[in-house]
Amino acid sequence: MKSLRLRLSHLANKKVPLLSLLAVGLLGMALGVFAASITVTQTIFHGETGTYHNNTGVITVTDKGLGVVANTAGAASSATFPTSATNTNVNNALTAGDWFDQIVFNNTATDSLAHTATIKVNSGTSGAAGGTPLVTTTFALTGGGATLGTITAYVDLGTISITTPLTAYINIT
Fold it and tell me: Confidence class of residue 141 from pLDDT cuts 50, 70 and 90?
């Protein structure tokens, strides 16, 4: 406690040059004026409003959201569910810079049947169908005889600019 009192008394006895006080004061005023002129504008981004799923009961669907395509790639429109806990991918033609929707399919039955997944994505709220259609694509999904694997679909929305909200319709037969 004595050393703290001693340090405070030494600090109080020091003389601070007037020029340094003036510099600190001017800097403080400049920062105050700068901080007063900053305007913060909040921008709220909305993703998808919902996903409508219609399936035959043997495949569950999980929408994993949106992303931006990194690399251009050709379409891969069919896949078989893996028999182990791994993943296989399908996609429509991907163009670098476009938005994509990532959808995961999980086979809940041990069938080896062929299924067709149709994905339609609408943008905005105008129009009779609840938005402007962006893309409709179809994938052939074949059961692998086990319930462990998944198939992930990357659906290129065909645009670099989207209007929210997005609505995805997924129909599996």
Answer: very high
